[in-house]
Amino acid sequence: MFLRNHWYVAAWSEDIGREPISRVMLGELVMLYRTEDGWPVALEDRCPHRNLPLSEGNLVGDVVQCLYHGLEFGADGVCVHVPGQDNVPDWARVKRYPVAERNRWVFVWMGDPEAADEAAVPDYSTRLVDPEWITISGYQVVRCGYRLILDNLLDLSHLAYVHARTTGNAALAEDAVLTTEAEGDRVRITRWMEDIEPAPAFRRFGGFTGNIDRWQVSQFLPPSYININNGADDAGSGARGPEQLTSRGKWGFVVYHAMTPESATTTHQFWAVSIPERMVPDAERETFHAQMDTVIPEDTVVYEAQQAAIDRDPDAHDQDANPKGALAIDQALLEMRRVIRRLHRAEQGVAPEPNTGRTLP
Ligand code: FES
Ligand SMILES: [Fe+2]
To answer: Are 108 and 30 in contact (CB under 8 A)?
Structure first.
């Protein structure tokens, strides 16, 4: 179940240059490169002549030359030269995808090109380019459907078990007060923990010795973006109300994720942890970096094992989780799925789901 009429992250800005790269996005072969002026270009990565991916070929100026028989395509996808003949046939063209670049991310519009709206490019990740913040970032292809990753980021109780060596401890699962809000297509879950023991990373980098107040606000933006504000302060001084959305308190960080489905069961994951520079002293920077780098692989093991189990579930539907029931911690991820289903039905021209007067668990 892919939502097509959306901007998806195709690559970190620095990963696109004059050497064409290939990515499968929503099941389509996409080639990415930069023009001599530095503009990112996304073209269908399949020569219309005999199907060789154009990314195997070479750039000549801004023109891509197919490696096999030398057809040349401009940045608009139209063939400009056929070796050995004067006429260029009408079929000699590839699809050109609308592209945008913001805050170190290159986005590709995967739907109807006519509907591509520059104003709709997600612009929530401004910290990625903030000179007063440091960012640790990465990219990986995960062997699971994109919704399993969204689940993980909309239910941070898992930190207590999956990340107990760094950002989690038991209090995160046991003592959090949850608030889920849906606003249009966005879903937000706030976790508020009062007077709890600090997790290892908060002790080490935040310098907390006594108990803390801690808050985590995860926000989902369709089709598959998440940002999480993490804050902590001495017990009794934690941020309250709307301040939890923007305040880090004494110590905290912001997390950004962009998931782009490759196939139904594989996903491109672009992730970043951004933190105000002053919150990580020079001497601790390397250790902080190393700790944050361990977090993603800890999650990846979980997502991939879930997908492998789903693949063997005879009752699974749409290659997605098939839970026997829901818990209170699942509020936001159920809401996220509802939004995705609604948008998908709208794209397919299918009537909305009936409102069954649902209640959240
Ligand atoms: S396959 Fe590309 S020119 Fe023949
Ligand atoms: Fe995690």
So the answer is: yes
Distance from residue 97's CA to the centre of ligand 1 (Å): 20
Q: What is the CA radius of gyration of the chain?
A: 23
Using a cut of 0.90, tell me whether the model's pTM lies above it: yes
- How far is CA 263 from each of CA 20, 107, 109, rounded to the nearest angstrom? 21, 18, 16
Residue 356 CB neighbour total at 10 angstroms: 6
Residue-wise pLDDT tens digits, 160-203: 999 998 999 999 999 999 999 999 999 999 999 999 999 999 99
Q: What is the pLDDT of residue 253?
A: 97
Query: Which residues does ligand 1 sit against, CB inside 6 Å?
Result: 47, 49-50, 52, 66, 68-69, 71
**CA distances in angstroms from 188 to 181, 218, 242, 243, 322, listed in the order given:** 5, 6, 12, 14, 23
Domains of the chain as residue ranges with CATH: 7-120 (2.102.10.10), 126-347 (3.90.380.10)
Please write the tens of the pLDDT for every residue from 306-332.
999 999 999 999 999 999 999 999 999
Q: How many residues does the chain have?
A: 361
Taking the C-alpha atoms of residue 72 and residue 69, their distance in angstroms, rounded to an integer, is 9
Percent of the chain with pLDDT over 70: 98
For ligand 2, the distance from its centroid to the CA atom of residue 147, given in whole angstroms, is 14
